[in-house]
């Protein structure tokens, strides 16, 4: 390329064009005979010389490098087992790989402590592969072992890793006591747990840590009304945000701390099941993670889940269809039920119907570029007041325009 007439002038023109923020991109097409190559120069990427199919790497780094890739028969071995693996070798020239030229390959294996456990000179096949088997000592260090390889024993390169691990049964168990499977939002509960060695003695005075995570829960009413949707899947459109289609309430950590077990191996802490200020009224799972360490610093963990209801009652929606026709009634069925699926009558229900549309908006992004984003727009169509009964109550929705409609039903329990 350096010997091509006009190369310096071309590079100067490209560099000047690169500084023009109003025209940030330029593509250079080079042809020689029946060959063609592209060069893409962007103001935020610079001159992308690797787009040329030329051996620039040799002039910049002093020559291409060989590459060696470990292919292990298993990702994990136990002490005393035989590790079997291959090493695939290739020579890198510029932006492509070529056949490995050397017939010999030096290799060494280091354990998890960095101590070399094996060295070997391997025969390389015509396909650029070599094989090795390693007898892992019975007292081998546990963890990640590394394989290095190369044509020069003084310049070995990283080829890959495999794990050496063994399983030891935990010496003790950690169990929750008096654990509540369900609760109401806003309640204050107490989490209790106990750790015992397998021979019966308590794990006394040992460190314990806990972490409580709140996440959206999928809840269905038990019994005959399990087809009714009782979770709040409606999230209003926000003019300041992009489309929230498919939005899901986030998972958050609500409690985390460290302490010690008492003399009997027990531990307890209070937990407030409060909802976040901006959280929608919907069922959530509070998952409690507990970890106990014994005297030799081995850890045993356990977890359990509490379903937290947003209220004493749920309002449910159901329909035999999910598509309707413009100008014709679309029948819905509504119920009010407790957590066990028993219907509750004489409860006021407010049902609001929205029509959702999406608008494509062009906005400025980084630099001088522009992008299109989809924004949701919700228009309230109608609102209906109903009263629940001992059987599902009906509601007919008439859509005057085709589109995507959302029905949100609301109730209040005795706690308001």
Extended strand count = 26
Low-confidence stretches: 49-64
**Backbone shape:** flat
Q: Give the spatial strand order of the biggest sheet.
A: 5-12-11-8-9
Largest sheet: 5 strands, mixed
Helix content: under 10%
**Counting H and I runs of at least 4 residues, what is the number of helices?**
2
Terminal CA distance: 78 Å
Overall pLDDT, averaged?
A: 83
Q: Could you state the order of secondary-structure elements as H and E?
A: HEEEHEEEEEEEEEEEEEEEEEEEEEEE
Global structural class: mainly beta
Q: In terms of topology, how is this protein built?
A:
Elements: H1 7-18, E1 25-32, E2 35-42, E3 46-47, H2 56-61, E4 66-72, E5 76-77, E6 82-93, E7 96-99, E8 104-110, E9 116-123, E10 129-135, E11 143-150, E12 157-164, E13 172-177, E14 182-184, E15 188-197, E16 207-216, E17 252-260, E18 266-272, E19 284-293, E20 299-309, E21 313-318, E22 329-338, E23 348-364, E24 370-387, E25 393-398, E26 404-410
Parallel strand pairs: 5-12, 14-20
Antiparallel strand pairs: 1-2, 2-3, 4-6, 6-7, 6-10, 8-9, 8-11, 11-12, 13-15, 15-18, 16-17, 16-19, 19-20, 21-22, 22-25, 23-24, 23-26
Report what the structure shows.
- By secondary structure, this protein is mainly β.
- The chain contains two helices and 26 strands.
- The chain has helices at 7-18, 56-61; strands spanning 25-32, 35-42, 46-47, 66-72, 76-77, 82-93, 96-99, 104-110, 116-123, 129-135, 143-150, 157-164, 172-177, 182-184, 188-197, 207-216, 252-260, 266-272, 284-293, 299-309, 313-318, 329-338, 348-364, 370-387, 393-398, 404-410.
- The strands form seven sheets. Strands 5-12-11-8-9 form a five-stranded mixed beta sheet, with no helix packed on it.
- The radius of gyration is 33 Å and the shape is flat.
């Amino acid at each position: 390329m350096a010997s091509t007439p006009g190369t310096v002038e071309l590079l100067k023109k490209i560099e000047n064009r690169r500084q023009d923020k109003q025209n940030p991109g330029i593509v250079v097409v080079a042809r020689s005979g029946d060959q063609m190559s592209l060069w893409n120069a962007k103001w935020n990427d610079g001159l992308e010389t690797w787009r040329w199919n030329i051996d620039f790497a040799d002039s910049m780094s002093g020559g291409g490098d060989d590459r060696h890739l470990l292919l292990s028969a298993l990702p994990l071995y136990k002490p005393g087992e035989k590790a079997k693996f291959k090493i695939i070798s290739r020579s890198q020239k510029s932006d492509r790989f070529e056949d490995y030229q050397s017939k010999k390959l030096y290799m060494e294996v280091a354990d998890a402590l960095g101590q070399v456990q094996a060295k070997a000179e391997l025969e390389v096949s015509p396909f650029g592969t070599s094989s090795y088997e390693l007898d892992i000592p019975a007292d081998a260090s546990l963890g990640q072992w590394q394989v290095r390889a190369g044509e020069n024993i003084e310049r070995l390169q990283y080829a890959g890793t495999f794990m050496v691990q063994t399983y030891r049964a935990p010496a003790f168990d950690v169990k929750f006591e008096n654990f509540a499977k369900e609760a109401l939002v806003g309640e204050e509960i107490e989490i209790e747990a106990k750790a015992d060695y397998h021979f019966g003695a308590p794990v006394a005075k040992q460190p314990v840590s806990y972490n409580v995570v709140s996440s959206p829960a999928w809840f269905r009413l038990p019994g005959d009304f399990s087809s009714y949707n009782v979770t709040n899947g409606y999230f209003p459109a926000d003019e300041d945000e992009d489309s929230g289609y498919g939005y899901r309430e986030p998972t958050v950590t609500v409690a985390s701390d460290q302490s010690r077990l008492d003399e009997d191996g027990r531990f307890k802490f209070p937990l407030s099941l409060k909802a976040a200020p901006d959280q929608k009224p919907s069922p959530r799972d509070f998952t409690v993670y507990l970890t106990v360490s014994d005297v030799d610093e081995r850890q045993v963990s356990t977890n359990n889940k509490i379903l937290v209801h947003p209220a004493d009652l749920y309002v449910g929606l159901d329909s035999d269809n999910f598509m309707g026709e413009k100008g014709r009634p679309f029948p819905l069925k509504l119920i009010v039920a407790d957590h066990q699926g028993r219907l509750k009558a004489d409860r006021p229900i407010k049902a609001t119907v929205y029509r959702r549309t999406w608008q494509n908006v062009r906005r400025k992004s980084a630099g001088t570029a522009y992008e299109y984003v989809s924004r949701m727009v919700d228009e309230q169509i109608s609102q209906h007041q109903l009263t629940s009964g001992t059987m599902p109550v009906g509601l007919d929705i008439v859509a005057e325009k085709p589109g995507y409609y959302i029905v949100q039903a609301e109730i209040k329990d005795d706690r308001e």
